From TrEMBL, chain A:
It comes from Hymenobacter roseosalivarius DSM 11622. Gene3D superfamilies: ApbE-like domains. The lineage of its organism: Bacteria, Pseudomonadati, Bacteroidota, Cytophagia, Cytophagales. Belongs to the ApbE family. Mg(2+) binds at residues 163, 281. This is FAD:protein FMN transferase.
Automatic annotation (TrEMBL), chain B:
Residues 172-302 form the GFO/IDH/MocA-like oxidoreductase domain. It holds the Pfam family GFO_IDH_MocA. Residues 39-162 form the Gfo/Idh/MocA-like oxidoreductase N-terminal domain. PANTHER family: BCDNA.GH03377, NADH-DEPENDENT DEHYDROGENASE-RELATED. GO terms for molecular function: nucleotide binding. This is Oxidoreductase domain protein. InterPro entries: Gfo/Idh/MocA-like_OxRdtase_N, Gfo/Idh/MocA_oxidrdct_glycsds, GFO_IDH_MocA-like_dom, NAD(P)-bd_dom_sf, TAT_signal.
Length: 333, 407
């Protein structure tokens, strides 16, 4: 109670006018978004948000014909990158390095071949020969930011930033709020979240639920854990629900960019807390690919990341584990 | 087909029942054993439903080869033959001739309701595998006799065309009920409404009763048999139950056009063991609700369309969501605008329920398995429909009897 009162007092002192809650929500990037912020007045409007989202789509959306990323994919050498493409592909290259190539935004041709892309799924799993051919076009080492341009070494290199575009968008919307001196907010898009500050008038921290992975097609409305976050981002990547049955194999939608085949490991979902949503969103994917042992090792070496992992035991039951920093965020550890 | 005299028809089947006197083993010698992978199938009755199933068979070319078609009306046969799957099929005006053809291993029976039993019986006695459209039989005694007949032919499959038992969506709903998503279900609302006469065009006046058999009580169980039976069957299946008490009402309230079956019906069913009430209604004079199917429980509601389902958790179920400000998850639940969650069945888009039903018919034959929609479940639903019609037409409260359990 005492710890809750002090920030509340501070909030009261620094706020010239009483704060009110404002809610914005809508559809974007094939999913929904929701923003809650506290301010004396409605300083950020839905129009501003929509403008921001439209700008990002024009740059990063594979679903939008003529978008900058589609131009890049169709080009032989590359394109002049705008702010969004520069930031996101730059971050993607960093994570590519940090994860030893497990996180790779050029994996798109393989994703399409396995039927998880934007095009209709092929009837069968790709042949080994097809995978070998496609692998020649995959690898972020063939991708470079040079001056104002994003260039590729091989014309067939295709970029897919869908895995981190949502996290990035959450950051852009958070920045929009910050520019308007808003310090108490929650931004959520497609289950990727960034928060700062507290709720008004109670002064509570933002509470974020982590969805319980349900391996059946229908997801039960249930939460596995609830965390309290002062500032930062939380995102989740999972291997459940989105899969295709090809023969006897249930193939998950995450493809190993090095082998060309879907990751087959015990990971069910990875929830990552980081300073910003772009970082969290990139690493939740990478941790999924690492498998449990490597993921835990990696997390020990990266104290800037906190994570909560759900995985399958050899006997088929689900188990979970979390970094110590994540455990401190849990509402009911 | 309704024009051929029922008396004559009964005599013919009387002759065929002679086969029953043979010991079981001997009867089975005559049963055509399916040999090659594809099943050679004949379609008896080429009206809307028969033609609809022919189109579905077109999508199952590795499982069925349509070798025979039968309809009394030549124009229907001609129309059916235009469907690609049936282009090479031999045409018959008399189903008995089709059943005599040894090349035919299995038959789809899509004739008017009052003929279901007779044609199915003849097909079984001719050794065929049988896919019999719903409702299984016109009345209860026929249902009882068909059960006996099928039990005497254990090597033959009889599947009843309640295709929702085969739809992945409806299967998922059955699972969700078992898993407790709905909590305790007390009310089920079902409607199948239209704003239209439910008549088919008649090329010449003499064919009225044949084509619009649904309008005449001699041939048809009306809206209850043709439409509501699907939902009645689904509830029997999903809750593993049956009706205990049935009340009903109805009338010819809008289409006073010489029809005998009611154009507006409502049935109330008590499921005593489950503590549930089922409300089943159909009208031909309003289309707003169309197909409606709602299962209401203490924890949530499932609202079903033919190929779409939405789960609406009750407020109490949602409570835990109220305690958080945001939810992170790999595959975010997308709530629709009314606060519901779409029920999904996997990546593949849903096919027509009959596609799944016919695929399973193939499997049931090949593996000699009892289909999910079999003669016993079909008989229970036929009894429910018949009791509903008794209640509607006689203003009585009908009670389930133990002999309708068919256990």
């Amino acid at each position: 109670m005492v710890s809750g009162l002090l920030p509340l007092l501070l909030l009261w002192l620094v706020s010239p006018a009483p704060l009110r809650a404002f809610h914005l929500s809508g559809y974007a990037q094939g999913t929904t978004y929701a923003i809650t912020y506290y301010a004396p007045d409605s300083t950020v409007t839905k129009e501003q948000v929509t403008r921001q989202l439209t700008e990002i789509d024009a740059s990063l959306s594979l679903y939008q014909p003529g978008s900058l990323i589609n131009q890049f994919n169709q080009s032989r050498r590359g394109v002049v990158a705008d702010r969004h493409l520069k930031v996101v592909s730059g971050a993607a290259l960093q994570v590519y390095q940090a994860t030893g190539g497990l996180f790779d935004t050029t994996v798109e041709p393989l994703v399409q071949a396995w039927g998880f892309g934007t095009q209709p799924a092929p009837p069968a799993a790709p042949a080994p020969a097809t995978i070998r051919v496609l692998l020649a076009r995959v690898g972020s080492d063939k991708l470079h930011l040079r001056g104002d341009s994003l260039v590729k070494d091989v014309p067939g290199v295709h970029l897919d930033l869908n895995g981190i575009a949502q996290g990035y968008t959450v950051d852009v919307l958070a920045t929009l709020l910050e520019r308007h001196r808003i310090r108490n907010y929650l931004v959520e898009l497609g289950g990727e979240i960034r928060v700062r500050g507290r709720k008004w008038p109670g002064g509570e921290r933002w509470r974020i639920g982590i969805e319980r992975p349900d391996t059946s097609a229908f997801e039960a409305p249930a939460l596995q854990q609830i965390i309290c976050l002062a500032a930062g981002a939380v995102t989740t990547s999972g291997n459940y629900r989105k899969f295709r049955q090809v023969g006897a194999l249930k193939n998950a939608h995450l493809i190993n960019p090095k082998t060309g085949y879907p990751f087959q490991n015990e990971m069910i979902s990875a929830t990552v807390v980081a300073r910003d949503a772009l970082t969290a969103d990139a690493y939740d994917n990478a941790l999924m690919g690492m498998g449990l042992t490597r993921a835990l090792l990696f997390l020990r070496q990266h104290s800037e990341l906190q994570a909560y992992l759900i995985y399958q035991r050899p006997d088929g039951t689900a188990a979970d584990t979390a970094t110590p920093g994540f455990q401190r965020l849990l509402l009911n550890p | 087909m309704t024009n051929f005299a029922r008396r004559d028809f009964l005599q013919k089947t009387g002759l065929l029942t002679g086969g029953l006197l043979l010991p079981n083993g001997l009867v089975e010698v005559f049963a055509t054993a399916p040999t090659a992978d594809k099943i050679k199938i004949g379609v008896i009755g080429c009206g809307d439903r028969g033609k609809g199933l022919l189109k579905i068979l077109q999508e199952l070319p590795d499982k069925f080869e349509v070798v025979a078609l039968c309809d009394e009306l030549p124009f229907r046969l001609r129309d059916a033959q235009k469907i690609e799957s049936a282009s090479k099929a031999k045409a018959y005006a008399d189903y008995r001739a089709l059943l005599d053809a040894r090349a035919v291993e299995a038959v789809i029976i899509a004739v008017p309701l009052h003929l279901h039993f007779a044609v199915a019986k003849a097909a079984l006695l001719a050794g065929k595998q049988v896919f019999l459209e719903k409702t299984m039989t016109y009345d209860i005694p026929q249902a009882q006799e068909l059960v006996r007949l099928v039990q005497q032919h254990p090597n033959q499959t009889l599947q009843v065309g309640h295709q929702y038992r085969y739809s992945p969506l409806y299967y998922r709903v059955k699972e969700m009920i078992a898993q407790g998503y709905l909590g305790k279900v007390t009310q089920i609302d079902c409607r199948w409404d239209r704003n239209g006469s439910w008549r088919r065009p008649v090329p010449e006046p003499g064919l009225e009763r044949q084509i619009n058999w649904r309008m005449y009580r001699e041939y048809s169980g009306g809206l209850a048999a043709e439409l509501l039976s699907h939902q009645m069957d689904f509830i029997n299946w999903a809750f593993d139950t049956h009706a205990d008490e049935i009340m009903g009402t109805g009338g010819i309230d809008y289409y006073k056009d010489g029809r005998e079956t009611y154009d507006n019906v409502q049935v109330m069913v008590r499921y005593a063991r489950e503590g549930m009430i089922g409300n089943f209604g159909a009208t031909c004079a309003n289309a707003r609700d169309g197909y409606l199917f709602k299962l209401k429980g203490t924890k949530g509601t499932i609202s079903l369309l033919i190929d779409e389902g939405i789960y609406y958790p009750e407020k109490e179920t949602l409570k835990q969501y109220g305690t958080v400000d945001g939810v992170t998850g790999a595959t975010k639940i997308t709530w629709n605008k009314e606060g519901g969650i779409p029920i999904t069945t996997g990546a593949e888009p849903l096919k027509d329920g009959s596609w799944y039903a016919l695929s399973d018919f193939y499997r049931a034959i090949k593996e000699n398995k009892i289909p999910d929609s079999n003669v016993l479940t079909g008989a229970r639903t036929a009894c429910t429909v018949h009791l509903a019609n008794q209640a509607i037409y006689n203003h009585t409260i009908e009670k389930w009897r133990p002999e309708y359990n068919f256990t």
